[in-house]
Amino acid sequence: MRPEYLTMCAFGPYAGSVEIPFSRFGDHGLYLITGDTGAGKTTIFDGIVFALYGEASGDIRRPDMLRSDFAAPTEKTYVELVFTCRGKQYTVRRNPEYIRPKARGEGMTKEGADASLVYPDGRVVSGSRQTTKAVEELLGLERSQFVQIAMIAQGDFQKLLLAGTQERGKIFRKIFDTGCYESFAKELKRRLLETKRGYEELQRSAEQYIRGILLPECEETAAENAEIGGKEQAPTTEAIRVKEGLEVKEGIPEKEESWAEELRALLKKENAVYYVGEVERALEGLLQEEGKRQDRRKELLSGLEGERMMLQEQLGRWQLLEQTEAQRKEKQVLLEALQKELAVYKVQYEEALGEEPVARQAEERLAVLTEQMNRYEAFEKLGESIASLTSVQEQEEQKIKKQEITLQRIQESVIDGESRLQSIGRPDESLYLLKMEEEKAVLRQQRLQQLEEMLQEAGKQGHLRDMARKEFTQARQESTVLGKKYVDLEAAFLSGQAGILAQSLEAGKPCPVCGAKEHPVPAKAETCVPSEEELKKLAKQRDTALSNTERAADIAASENGKYEQICNALETWCSQEGIWNLEDRESREGEGVLEGRVKSLEQEARGYLQEQSWELNGIMQQHRVRKQELQLLLTEKKALEKELLQLKERSTTLQKEQELCLQELIRCRAQRQEKELQWREQKSSLFYENRTEAEKDVQRLAQKSSQIMERISVARTALEKCQSRIQAETHALELLKAQTEKEARPKKEKLLEKKEKLLREKEALERQQEISHVLLQTDEGILAQLRKSKKKLGRIQESYQMLASLSDTANGELKGRQKLAFEQYIQTVYFSQVIREANKRFGTMSGGRYYLKRRMTADSLRSQTGLELDVFDYYTGRLRSVQSLSGGESFKASLALALGLADVVQQHAGGVQLDAVFIDEGFGSLDRESLDQAVRILQELTGGGRLAGIISHVDELKERIERKIYVKKGMHGSRVELSV
After folding, report:
1. For the stretch 741-778, what's the b/e string if a residue is b when 16 or more beta carbons lie within 10 angstroms of its beta carbon?
2. SS3 of 114, please?
3. Which of 46, 225, 752, 820 could make an SS bond with 232 (beta carbons 3.0 to 4.6 A apart)?
4. What CA–CA distance (Å, rounded) separates 279 from 285?
5. Taking a C-beta distance cutoff of 8 angstroms, is the pair 17, 25 a contact?
6. Which among 897, 878, 902 is positioned nearest to 835, based on CA atoms?
7. Which of the residue ranges 364-368, 643-647, 688-692, 950-954 would you say has the lowest mean pLDDT?
8. What's 215's DSSP letter?
């Protein structure tokens, strides 16, 4: 990549547009960028970096700080760079986001950031991010890599030369992006600590599980076993041992605290997994013993349940006998009550039978009414028909009334419409007459337009006539002047010729003109005699002027004739219109004053034109108004005629509808009278006024008959049920007497005492079984958790050991080893490559005396090392620190280190070749010889087609480097001058 042309506008210290044609420096060699401090030398490189990546070369100035403070509000800030890459030319243009004063008014305005990249084929990439991405893909370098390769800043590399391991490591982390290795080491340490916390958490969890183990109460269990027959055996020796080692009862807090301390101490040791395993095995034995005891308790409970069932059966038989005796007594009492009820039911049944004739009469009346119900239905339909006919009759009467009112209104509207038509008259005839008048007005308007055109033509032709007269007068004056001048010139010419002839006369010889031999008064010779050529030339001018005068006279006569024709036509038109008298014209011609006649004619014609135009405009305006009124009247007349026609048709339709309504009304009246006669005849043959009253009586009779029959049926049913119950209760009482006489009654007290004893034994076993179940359930859960914890502790312990080894190695914390972290180890590889490249130039610059070398051993195992730098002195044969070098030697070493670092960064950037580099300051500490060596090294650096720009203000460099860029600082901003 090589910059060809750089343009910066309102950028940094540059107020206006600055152009730097790098292509004038050629394709290789050195050039110097020199100028005052703060003038903007490094800003040139900042402009290149900003154009490519949208940021300055350093990290201090942000893009929004790059606008020049010297720039005018209307000046735009941008950088444009033309560069070549792989033999092709590209153009990138970019402007930052900045705030500038408004060009008009007060306040500030914001300019947005933008960029574009133009490819050789004309393709364009727009947008800041898209352009930066395209540049990175094109160059194969990010901004940080480009800055490290393209800019060799001596101040930074002086720090790199004298830095220690930690400081140099920070610099290499930024240059070679080794922060990922540091992050890797930190991540290992974080995971190690996280694993350790997980391990400790599992230890605490296991401790809690063990503290929650429940153990059987041996003394209490033995007492219960003795109470139920001594069948339960004592706990095993192993269970007692586990109890003594793990028991944490509330009643012995001292023992619990000592056990907890012992537990925490054991779990903190490396054999925590083994200890949890021991507890697991002891707990498994305890659970097995408790399970056996629980099985034995189940057998005892089963035996007690059998005895309880036998005793319960005996108690059941005793209770059954007592219940039978009680039932016998109840039956006896119930039988006596039923005898009394039977007597009551007999009385009620006889009373109900006495009402049966009344029910028979109601049924007969009900049959007659039922037969009439169908006639009621026809009677009601007849009434409904009468009501319907009445409603139709009323509707028809209302309809006829409305039709009469509507007909009356229609007749009134027809009369009004015909009256209005008569008042309107015949607007169509008026429109025709108005149209004829308009046509006359149009013709009159055309005649006036003809007058206007004739007046315009007369004015135009009068102007042409005046111009022709003027030209004729000028030509005649010129011809007169030239004629007079010719006469005078001819006389002078002839007089001059006589003088010349007189000079040749001799006494006694004849004159060639008159022949006289004596010459008493010869002509005197003129001092200024015109030549024959001048006379001919003036004669030609005179003839030309005469020709022009004749031609002008013809033109003037022609234009005057045209003007008179137009005036005659205008007079004829005016005489036809009566505004001009031909006799007046003849009197004026006699006077011979054409101009006055035309002027008077034009005034009268224009006055007439104006007067007639106003009159015609008024007539046309009146016609337009009258035409609109007639059009409205014509429209109204057509609408009225159409409306009258519709009203007459509507009147005819209503009259027909009215006749039909009258016919329908007569028919309804006749039907209604017939229906009323039938209705009166049917009403006289019915018991009730309407069907509703008849239905009420039918319902009353039916209900009365039903109630009587229901009372008879209920009384009969109650009597029969009571007789049946008496028979059944009597039979049951006899059976109960037979049962109580056969069965012998056992002793109830002994049975109850034995039952209570069995219940106590059962409750004791069940309580002990519940305690054992809770213990098994709890301890089995704890055992399952302990097994999981043991597995997790084993896995985490293995992971912890592996992570501890990796973390100590990556972070340089191995005991008894050199403290070299993983990142520093990677950096030593880069550092060795940089030193190898730097020594290729440092040996030459130091005259073969010095050789840079990385320090391989640390002063102590406690301090971190690996990036320390020493210098080997071939003169003394000793290795010493680079800090012992003098100022000039330090510059050489820094320059060599910077060039070596640039080479290594370039190699690791995919072999990208930059054809242009910049070297910033640092040459002031060199003597003349060292300066020559440094320049020679840099020239060798540019020998392979590379262009190097040295940014410095050292005067010696100005003498050694011919090609220069002068950056000059001023009150209104900096400017640039080139010297090639």
Report:
1. eeeeeeeeeeeeebeeebeebbebbeebbebbeebbee
2. strand
3. 225
4. 10
5. no
6. 897
7. 688-692
8. -
What residue type is assigned to position 345 of the chain? Y
- Please report, for residues 164, 179, 183, 834, the alpha-carbon distance to residue 823 in angstroms, rounded to integers and kept in the order given: 15, 8, 9, 16
Amino acid at 95: N
- Give Cβ neighbours of residue 101 (< 8 Å, ≥ 6 apart): 73, 107, 108, 109
Residue 504: other Cβ atoms inside 10 A: 10
CA–CA dist 726, 338 (Å, integer) = 6
- Token pair belonging to 466: 């005046």
Element (H, E) at 977: strand 975-979
> Looking at the predicted structure, is the pLDDT value of residue 979 above 70?
yes
Query: How far from chain centre, in Å, is Cα 23?
Result: 46
Q: Where are the alpha helices (DSSP H) in 743-858?
A: 748-810, 822-845
Question: Which three-class secondary structure state does DSSP give residue 511?
Answer: coil
Q: Are 468 and 552 in contact (CB under 8 A)?
A: yes
What pLDDT, in 10s, does the model give residues 481-525? 888 888 888 778 777 776 667 666 677 777 776 767 676 767 665
Q: What is the C-alpha to C-alpha distance for residues 160 and 59, in angstroms, rounded to an integer?
A: 18
Angstrom distance (rounded) from CA 909 to CA 901: 12
**In the numeric block, which tokens belong to residue 175?**
């240059």
Integer angstrom CA distances of residue 418 from 69, 363, 413, 648, 654: 94, 82, 9, 12, 20
CB atoms within 10 A of CB 78: 21
Helices (H), 578-593: 582-591
pLDDT in tens, 708-758: 777 777 777 877 787 777 777 777 777 766 666 555 455 556 666 666 777
Report how far residue 737's alpha carbon sits from residue 750's, in angstroms, rounded to the nearest whole number. Answer: 27
Quote the CA–CA distance of 169 and 171 in Å, as a whole number: 5
Identity at 499, one-letter amino acid code: G
- The DSSP element (H or E) to which 99 belongs, if any, is strand 98-101
Rounded-to-integer distance, Cα 167 and Cα 147, Å: 20
In order of 175, 824, 825, 853, the CA distances from 830 in angstroms are: 10, 10, 9, 13
Tally of CB atoms within 10 A around 524: 11
Count the neighbouring beta carbons within 10 Å of the beta carbon of residue 216: 17
Angstrom distance (rounded) from CA 501 to CA 409: 136
Residue 259 in this model has a pLDDT that exceeds 60: no
CA dist 817 and 808 (Å) reads 10
- Bridge partners (DSSP) listed for residue 855: none
pTM over 0.85: no
429-445 in b/e form (b: 16+ CB < 10 A) is: ebbeebeeebeebeebb
Question: Is the model's pLDDT at 465 over the cut of 70?
Answer: yes
Which tokens belong to 171? Answer: 């610099």
Q: Identify which of 362, 364, 353 has the alpha carbon closest to the alpha carbon of residue 703.
A: 362
- Kindly calculate the radius of gyration of the chain based on its CA atoms and give it in whole angstroms: 71
Distance separating alpha carbons of residues 366 and 700, to the nearest angstrom: 9
